[in-house]
Please model this.
Amino acid sequence: MDSGFKDSLIATLREELEAAKTTDKEKVAAEVRTIGFSCLMCGRCCRREQGDNSVIVSPAEIQRICRYTGLEHGSVTKPPQSESDIPDLLAEKGNTDLIDPQGNIHTFGWELSRRENGDCVFMQEKREGNRCAIYDARPMLCSTYPFYMEDGELKVSECEGLGGETGFEESLVMAGKVIERYVEEIKETILLYENYGGFRKGPENINKAIANIREGIINYIVHDSTGSHRTTLRIVSDHNIKD
Ligand code: SF4
Model:
């Protein structure tokens, strides 16, 4: 990434951060009440069958979940583009934007691990409803769902619980969490850009990535707010990648 472009992105994000810190909590709470939300415990936001259920997690959130569960980093989270996405990623063979000369696939940030069927690894189905096994340590994306902030505006994701009754105190709590998430996400992005050193792209790089996959591994370099991290995924299929 060109350093001038990177500096200007960071400067824009710093302005956004200052604006985000002054977000009017009461105003956001009033919007939350107008929209209305009551969780139905349906667990749809945690399941793949209902659409995109990826949960982006920050390094601090990963640490918190690891401490809470006693699990290792690799069980809790994975790079956003993992084995199931690789055929799409490499299908065109012209897609070299994310691959370096060693065949490492570069990704940005982490997401919570999912089961084979795509459901969140922490979702528990119980007779009395769906439960989150890490409820007290769940990521901010989950505790604020279906609300989020973008460009200073409150937004909502698809959810069956929208339109439900929301009390005054409840709306204030939700507004506080949504704003906190908004501020933290901007901070994370600034740090990510500050730490990001880039890598050399080139049409030949994809061949090395394909060779790695045929040997049963996908090497990732994950860039996050704390730096760049190498992680390897072992796979069983070569995804029928053609010569
Ligand atoms: S962490 Fe919990 S709330 Fe978030 S998607 Fe997974 S099961 Fe659902």
User: Anything to note?
Assistant: The mean pLDDT is 88. The CA atoms of residues 93 and 225 lie 30 Å apart.
